[in-house]
Amino acid sequence: MAKAIGCETAAIKAVVMIEASPNQPAFDILNRPQILYERHILKKMTHSRFDAIAPDISGPVRGPGEYGGYNKQYERLNAAMKLDYDAALKATSWGAFQILGENFRHAGYGSVSDFVRAMGDINKQADVFVKFNLSNNKMRRALINKDWATFASVYNGPTYYRYNYDRRIKANYEKLS
């Protein structure tokens, strides 16, 4: 992976240590890909169409406690899929690297369903991370140069700083180096 991207192995490990921490491994106890359903993404994708009828499934970001436990994520995803199947899959972060389904094309897949099926294989999750990084020069350069703030803003969005995402990656990298 590191060779394909052109970065240090420790840089990739620093990212995955956040995305697939011991509390949220790549797969859950039922051997399904670990997910994080993101209601604000469904809201955006469906132009708030379901906000009134399903506020727990479609709505604005509420804060750190909004997501609920990892054991609730498939429940929330299943409810969202009943409203809009593709949008629900796109509004979910998948696997060890927690890549949003909406990035399926950047990860090398023709459909979000194909992307989700691939998440059942840890090797394909690794391939997705590589392809996703190769699809965005800014993100790739940031990972190579260990520019954690830029990497975090591209990988995790402009509000990455609320959760110290860049500082947490840097701290992980420093532990590994």
TrEMBL record:
Known InterPro entries for this protein? Answer: Muramidase
Locate the N-acetylmuramidase domain: which residues?
8-176
One Pfam family of this chain: Muramidase
Q: What is this protein called?
A: N-acetylmuramidase family protein
Q: Which species expresses this protein natively?
A: Novacetimonas hansenii (Komagataeibacter hansenii)
Q: What is the lineage of its organism?
A: Bacteria, Pseudomonadati, Pseudomonadota, Alphaproteobacteria, Acetobacterales
